[in-house]
Structure formats: C-alpha cells, structure tokens
Amino acid sequence: SNLQDTIIRGVHFRSNSDEFWIKPGLLVDNIFLKPGDLFRDEEYQKTNQQLVQLGVFRFVTIRQEVDTIDNNLINFNIFLTPNKRMEIGFDTDLNFTDRQANFANLVGVSFSPTYRNRNLQRGAELFSTNLQAGVEFDPFPRTLDSLINTLDISLQTDLLLPQFVDYLGSWRLLRKVGLKRLYTQMKEQASTRLSAGYQYSDFLNFYRLSLLNASFGYDLQPNANTRLQINHLAIDYLRPVTRPAFDNIARDNLRLRNSFGQQLFVSMLLRDITFQHTSRSGRYDGSQSLKINFETAGTEIWLGNSIYNALALNADTLRVFNSVNFSQYAKLDIDSRWLYPLTPTQDLAFRANLGIALPFGYSTEVPYVKQFAIGGPYSIRAWRSRELGVGNYLDPITDTTSNPLYFYLTGDMKIELNAEYRFPIFSYLNGALFVDAGNVWNLREDTTRCGSQFSWGRKPCGPENVVVEPFWKQMAIGAGFGLRMDFSYFILRVDFGYKVRYPHRRPETGSFWAIQNLSEVRIFR
C-alpha cells in the first residue's frame, strides 16, 4: 500500500494505508502540543485525553525524544492504533412476574439490537442506533384477547460529532461574564450530539402512547471520572390514545386526566443537564457515584405566551391546532450510589434516589410520562412496577384482588433507598441480601385522595379531617434474597422480594407490618 504523508500546521502525519483513518485536520485540533511552544505537562495530558476520547483508537501512545541536534527541543511521536470501525450488539431479557390470585402470571421477553459506527465520515463521528422491543404476555390465556398484556417498541439514533458547534453563539457570552475558562473547555473538549427517536407503548386495553423526540446538545468529559451532558434545543411530541376502561378511571381522577392528552415539550435554550461523577479511592476502598439530572420544557413558550397576553390584553393559552398543548414543567432527579468492599469477594452496596417534579406556567400537572413511579425488579423489588403509592392513600380501584390496576400510581416526588449485601456462593453463582424502602407522593393537596400529598408532619385532610401521617411513616419497606448467575456472556438474575411494611394500614389487619402474612412474595427473574 502507498504511504500517506502530509504536514498540517507544523504537525507531520504519516500512514501506511491508502488513506488516513482520521482526517489529519481533526487530529490537529485535538493535539495541544504545538510546535515551537514551551512544553507544559498540562498540554501533554490534555492531548492524550482528547485522542483517547475520540473513541476511534484502540491504543494511543505518545513518546517524547530529545532532539539530536538541539537538546533544548523535544520531539513527540504519537502512535495511533485504529479501533474496529463498526460494532453490532444484541441484548435480550426474560422476566417472570407472579400476580394476585385471580390473575395469571406474566412472562416478559425483550430484545435490543444495537449498531455503532465509530468513524462515519473519517471525522471520528460516532453514529449509534438502538432498537428495543418487548412484550409481556400470559402464557396460558383464557382468551386470545388476553394473550398480550403490554407491548413496547422504541428506536433511538444518535450522532456524536467531535467538534463543538455553538449554534446560537450563546456560549461566547460566557467570556463576557467572567467564565472564559468554561467556554474554552467547552470549545476544546465538548462533542456535539444530535439525537432522534420514537417510542410506542401499549398497555392492556387501557391506553397506548406514541412519543417522537429530537434534540441537540453537547457531551463534555473533562476527566475520566466526570461527565456533563447538556441538551439545548429539543422537541418531543406525545400522542396518547385512551380506551374506555381507562376513561372510566380518569373520570374520577382529575390529576390523571389532566396529565394525559396530546402535548408538545419544546425547549430552545435548555432542555436538560446531566452531571455524572464517579470517585474511586482504591481497589479495596470502594467507590461512590453521583448522577444529577435537571430537566425542563416550555419555558420559552410560556414567556412568549405571557408577553403576547400582556400586549394583547387577552388571556389565551397557545396551542397547536387547538388540541395540542405546550407542556411546562421542571424536574430534578438525584441518584447516589456507594460500594464498600468487605473482602475481595464480598461487598456492601447502597443507593439513594430522590426526585421532584413541578408544573408551572399554563400547565396544571406534570405530564404523565414525566412523573415518578417505583416498584419492579430494579426499584422496590417487593412491589410490582407502578404498584406502590401514592403516599399512604389506599386506592379503592387498585386495592382489590379482582382488579389490580397499578399502572397509573405515579407522583410528583420520589424517595427510594436500597441496601444490598453481595457474596459468592460457588463458582459462577453469587448471592445477595437486600432491603428496599421508598414511596412516591404528590406535592399538592388533593382532598379526594387524602394521604397522597407529601407532608413533613401530621395534618388533617378533607371534610372528615382524616389524619395524614408524615412522609417517613409512609415509607414502604421490602426485603429479600437474590441469586446472580454470571455466565460471562449473560447474567441471570433472580430476586425474591417480600413486603415487610406497607405505606398504609392494611384493611384486613389494621397494621402497617406484614410479618404475619407470608403469601405475598414477589419473584423477578
């Protein structure tokens, strides 16, 4: 093959292939060791970090040599070993959930093929697409109509460009307000991300949801332990279709009714910010991680609508085709995790998750798809998904063995705590003992659903002055035992969860505790 050879801005490039794996101009932008400059270790480390973060090289090696003619000069040779350009992956999941006496158990199957191209146009562009499809069904249905319980399909595509694109020039303002260092860091190290996706969910005979989304944002990784993601421009379109069974429930639930409907989530300057940090003290000292996500939508639409109403002296709410509302909400989610090794094979793991969401502007409720829900195999494992909540309000519709409808138990606030002791059993089989606690609440008082509001202390509710307990007395507690079978290529996970404490007094016993009742053990695989 022909040897490729070129010089750009004083940097000499050579390749033994017919063409350069990466356009040399892009590499120059990520090399901070400039010819003729005074050597600084900071620039050396930054060059190595940036070339690694391009994600297209398997190995990056920088060698320095004193010049043979002038010993005051240092020559740097950078050796780049290309990574595989394309990658195809496939994940699958099988789960089993037992339900109450009058309902059959459910089997869930999902698969997720992925495709990644690390160098789409020889500019270190990372293109990825992920398809997820899952179905939950009754293996022994009474009728053909009851075969499918839920159906979920989603497609997400992302294009990550290694350059920082300031599409409105707004980041340049940081220099004028004294944040020049942050602007320089974004310009030198941030990547630009374009995303688009579609999600379809169909639940029983109650409703189906279609969600289209598109966004423009940035990824910044200043060091190996910290990552910052920012989405500026974003548009989501939600189109739900409800069925008679759902409409009958929503008729008596104002919050549920107001949180549904066709909606647009529009952000022009800021949609969300996600900060992630992981710290490691040492091999046997454990690790801590923190993830903070702030999300908002509709701020610009609300401000524009308010200004128009003030000038036109007309209180009108902007809609699309008089049927699609612009949603306005703000949402904060904080997730912190700790891992403490007891021995080389035994660990203690803890997790705390806090979430809060608020509507503002012309919205009266947080959109249903943005509300919090807990329960299920990755949350409070003794409860089914969306079964737990809201507060200590006991919903008369869902609290029946003949009609267990837990799909709409969501709230504006979430507290979730988990603790797990992990240990080996033999060979590839590991065990875990866990305790989970948590609940979801609404932030506004609802006298028709006393106990659903988050409260710091005891307070009366409704015309009958029902006494509502403080939030810490409404925490549900579950405990159990889990098995983890690690076969390298896939992991089989089985958790047995038992309800230890309910968030409300059980009508049949008058107690929060379930020690006397060993029949409600949840099993997730």
Question: Which key terms come to mind for this protein?
Answer:
single chain; 525 residues; mainly beta; 19-stranded mixed beta sheet; 7 helices; globular
**Share of residues in helices:** 10-25%
Global structural class: mainly beta
Annotation field: number of helices: 7
Oligomerization status of the protein chains: single chain
User: Which regions are unreliable across 5 or more consecutive residues at pLDDT < 50?
Assistant: none
Kindly provide the radius of gyration, computed on alpha-carbon positions and rounded to a whole number of angstroms.
27 Å
Distance between the termini: 53 Å
Give me the count of strands: 25
Give the averaged pLDDT, no decimals: 86
What shape does the CA trace take? Answer: globular
Q: How big a fraction of the residues is strand? A: over 45%
Largest sheet: 19 strands, mixed
Question: In words, what does this structure look like?
Answer:
With 525 residues, this protein is mostly beta strands. The protein is 11% helix and 47% strand. It has helices at residues 24-29, 41-53, 173-176, 180-189, 244-250, 254-259, 299-312; strands at 4-8, 11-15, 57-66, 74-82, 86-97, 106-117, 126-137, 148-161, 191-203, 207-223, 226-242, 263-267, 272-282, 286-297, 319-320, 324-326, 329-343, 346-359, 413-426, 429-441, 459-461, 466-468, 476-486, 491-501, 521-524. The strands form 4 sheets. It has a 19-stranded mixed beta sheet that branches. A hairpin with a 3-residue loop joins strand 13 and strand 14 (286-297). It starts with a strand and ends with a strand.
